[in-house]
Design brief:
By secondary structure, this protein is α/β, with parallel strands linked by helices. The chain has one domain: Metallo-beta-lactamase, Chain A. It contains 8 helices and 15 strands. The strands form 2 sheets. Strands 8-7-9-10-11-12-13-14 form an 8-stranded mixed β-sheet. A 7-stranded mixed β-sheet has the order 6-5-4-3-2-1-15. It is globular. The two termini are 30 Å apart. The chain binds zinc ion (2 copies). The site of one zinc ion has 4 residues, from loops.
Length: 336
Amino acid sequence: MTDELRVKFWGVRGSYPTPGAGTVKYGGNTACVEIRAGERTIILDAGTGIIPLGRELTRGHALEVVLLLSHLHHDHTQGFPFFVPAYMPNARLHIFGPGGTPETLSRVLEHNQSSETFPVSLRDMASSKEIQSVRESQVVVWGGAGVHVTDSGEGLGNDNDALVIRIHKSYAHPGGVYVYRITWRGKSVVYATDTEGYVGMDHRLVQFAKDADLLIHDAQYSEEHYRGQLAGFPSTQGYGHSTVAMACEVAAACEAGQLVLFHHDPAYTDALVTGMEAAARAKFSDAQAAYEGLEMAFSLNPSPLHAGQSSAASRASEMGKGVRGYERDVKYAHND
Ligand SMILES: [Zn+2]
Ligand SMILES: [Zn+2]
């Protein structure tokens, strides 16, 4: 059994892809992050970064992945028609995202591949696909019995090896956006892209992201750009994206282990993003700017399945902070 939760960034750019000499260091593909939990693969968003990820995944055998869409803006879906596993008959995709009814998500994805706009329809992609709009109160669980959606985490049972995916609906982006918290054996990653900070902080997000080992947070704009003080650029206040300071404020308040700045502005050069990274580190020491190919690994606690029959309290003291983290997240999952 693997003892790490792994995170890899495949697309870190917001709005539109930006190839070219000025974006070589951080990369030009739009949003896509891969999370590996043992044999299980979770993909956050389907920007163009999902295209090289798809090629990588086809090197494996039978494929089963969970794809979580934060929202349905182009930079989070435009790579999907080119996601090779979606064309493979032995691949199984569970796709979740926002939408007013359970069918909203499939309707939008079908529309993205209507005959007028793309040569292959969604249903002609040979993989098996379960596409479902989910609600904030629902919890996606990937355990020994497969992938299923539960209401408020009920049915988690004793599957301590299950991946638990919780949802926070943010209104700080046009049309709203889902923030996801992925937890496996005591480690948590929170993916908060396309969100703008509030005056006095986004307290709901802070609560949702509390004690995450990794917070991936939108930091599209420099302070000057946001305020309209960058020559040639209008103020972007209200556009639904954050500054470095907003991302750091949330990371500090939720006591995240690490912060990754995400959704870089397409107009920003590598030098500008490097400057923003430095600004972030002055506010939150364990911060870095996402770049294509960035990989992070989080060591897991010994599996609770193998932790013997000791009480929860003694397990916590035996195994340290991480196990407390595990219990914290399971508790959190039951408290919604
Ligand atoms: Zn975006
Ligand atoms: Zn967006």
